[in-house]
Amino acid sequence: MPSRYLNFRCSVPWLILLLEILFLVHFFFCFPDVGNFYSPSDLYPEFQDVNHMVIFGFGFFLMVLRRYGFSSTGLNFLLIVLGVQCTVLVEDLLIFLRVQQNESGMRSLAKAVVSMTAVAISTGAVLGKANPVQLIVMSLVELVIFYVSRCINRTFLQVPDNLTLMHVHLFGAYFGVAVTSRFPEPPPGLDKNRSTPKSDLFSMLGTVFVWVFWPSFNSILADSKKEAVLNTYFALAVSAVAAFMLSALTSKDGKFRMTHIHSAVLAGGVTVSYTAHSIQHPWIAMILGLLGSVITILGSHCLQRCFNPAFKLQDTSGVHFTFGLPAVLGAVAAIVLCVVEKGISTQWNNLSSLGYLVFVDLGAFCQTISTALITGLITGLILNIKLLKAVHVSKYFDDQFYWEFPHLSVGF
Q1: Membrane-spanning residues where (predicted)?
Q2: Among residues 296, 355, 359, 304, which one has the least CA distance to residue 330?
Q3: Residue 4 and residue 179: Cα distance in Å, rounded?
Q4: Which of 24, 83, 160, 315 places its Cα 20 to 30 Å from the Cα of 225?
Q5: Structural domains of the chain, ranges and CATH numbers in brackets
Q6: What residues contact 138, with CB distance under 8 A and at least 6 apart?
Q7: What is the average per-residue pLDDT within 158-172?
Q8: How far is CA 135 from CA 120, 164, 259, 384, 390, in A?
Q9: CA-angle at 345, arms to 344 and 351, nearest 5°
Q10: pLDDT tens per residue, range 51-63
Q11: pLDDT at 251 (0 to 100)
């Protein structure tokens, strides 16, 4: 047996077993102040939607590489189920430390699945470059740091708990971009990071699933569920239509490009994630959906041609312009809409109160993105230590390094 396979046999299974023992011990003993995990809840329909979105939707959404389909779906599933258990453990620890209020088990589980979206997004940035051990370590570190970021926003800036979760897109995108910047660039002649019509088709299938279930994602923990669902759907619909229009306008031959549709149709859901519950007029959500699609498609051109080569970044799945830029736009839109709404209601007489609201929202945004970038860079450095057995750049983007292919007569 080649040494590289033996290395993973001696690391991945034992790491997973160690984590599962930790989770089992937690659920067996639990914490004394944590309430009944099985208390009644009406969140199951929305939870099921979000669960489908994160596991099935993102699993196929990441199938953009022609020789990395097994890992895209399989490892995404592994990370989600491990991460949800870790997140519930962190939730219970925060309750035990009196940092967070006690909640029902279904609500805690729903928050755990929503939080795992950050990991799914970050995974797209390092797709094909990180081995399973590195991905597991990255996921656990990211979840803990994301919860620390949420606690800072909730405790010091008084941001509502459901809104701190909506920073998941912003945090996941920029954490992933920072991590991938610490990985060596693949050699210019390596063509395994290309897509094929088949991989694009599966990836678009995942995009459609994410699109369909996104209203449940934005409304699952919102107080005004009906407004969140309607505004999210209108924003998604407009961003999808705008994606087809802009794709034809920006392509050299006037045809639709699958890469544009794959990323821009989701921009509306990301952009209104902060404000979907509070928008009172559908046309505002529609405008945000249009702007989200515009910034995604134009951002993909600028980032891939200017930003990424200059900073030597290879964002494999384009999570920066698919989730990062629309999240930045959504955060700015949330500040503007909040100022306009409060200003009109007070007839612009209480400017100090408006300034405080701007400070809180802007502070939460800056804290989230700076924490994601700084800790992402540190995590990227940690992932490349010898102990975690980083993959050589010539072996990037290939399933055969991790998965068995019985029909192949010659090993990798």
Answers
A1: 12-31, 52-69, 75-97, 133-152, 164-181, 201-221, 228-249, 283-303, 323-344, 356-385
A2: 296
A3: 23
A4: 83
A5: 46-389 (1.10.3430.10)
A6: 119, 122, 123, 126, 130, 179, 379, 383
A7: 91
A8: 10, 24, 25, 11, 11
A9: 70
A10: 999 999 999 999 9
A11: 84
